[in-house]
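Comment thread on ticket #2218

A.B. wrote:
> Attaching the input chain for the structure job we discussed in standup.
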Amino acid sequence: RWLSSRQRQPRTAIGDRLLRATARRLAEALRPGDRLARIGSDEFAVFVPRLEALADASQLARRLRAAMRSPFKVADREIAMTISTGIAIGRPSAEEMLHAAGLALDAARRGGGDGFEVFTAMMRAAALRRFDTEVDLQRALERDEFVLHYQPIFDLERLEPVHFEALVRWQHPVRGLIPPSLFVPLAEQNGTIRQLGRWAIHSACRQLSAWREQYPDRSGLGVSVNVSGVQLHQNSELLRDIEQALHTYHLDPGCLMLEITETVLMKGNGDPDLLEAIRALGVRIAVDDFGVGYSSFRYLRNLPVDTVKIDRSFIAASESPNRDPWTVMQMIIEFCTRLDLEVIAEGIEQPDHPRRLRDLGCRHGQGFLLSPPFSAAGATGLFARSPRGLTGGPPPPLESAAE
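C.D. wrote:
> Ran it. Output below, let me know if you need it in another format.
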């Protein structure tokens, strides 16, 4: 029976003293015969030779958690700690038990930490799938398996596309089209997000250049690319990728917009100096999914951004019969307008949404009523249609790709 625990420790000079104090507390919470060992920089393993039932292991995990509740006093400081625990029960080898407890520990951490999880066969299967996905992801760029789909952003007065958001999809040879939610977090963890981000910027710029050459009257057309928080830590690399793409495809910087989620920006992952350097190139920066995380207007005063994309949840909430549906939208639009920020409304899905947004002063919008995401070929077909054909409802069907 193994319990594998990991505590969050501050990276300070007093870390060693803190670890020793942690070990003492954990040892005091154990029963006679239980064995404690440190197996990593911030990991401990507990071998419990006598367990009558799973409830006993769960009770021990709770005791370990309770032992960490009181702040540690180290070098005249009080330091609060939490602990996450993974539990594995059985009689395989010590190596197998530690591995199983580690998988359960990872599940506990993904659940928010400061809790415990018990190893199950499903965890092993999930770990194998994750490993297979990671191996495939490493090869996907080499095999040219990624594609961009494009969802247009519309001028709500003329109801015609003026900008396209580039959305990365993985065209897996066996599993088919994989949405970003299933591979971007993994790419951020293993570092392939830098290569993927570079590819997305160059591919979007190449497609925009082709559209502008094919449709000279669309010289004002723009494209936006989503940027990960990991990319924002690679300051010089990201700047170089942007400059190279714009130079290679002979594009003016103003046609490119980088979309960074509100959560990433508010957590401090967006270095203001880097954002200012990007804007100094002439590239625009948008706060994506605004309102889904912090919804703090005061941050907008200080962030070097040009555009706010209001999260689709606000328009969805407008269907609620219990309150004035558009009050919050009006407040956000008016505030952004006073800050001279462009506003784009996401999630336009009902026939009355474009008119209501126009009445509130929102000029641009995006959503499935206007258009779903398309492949590059499908998006090109939008230019061949009359914009006025969109005023009576959603556009006629084209080859589309689910967002």
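A.B. wrote:
> Thanks. Noting for the ticket: The longest strand covers residues 160-172.
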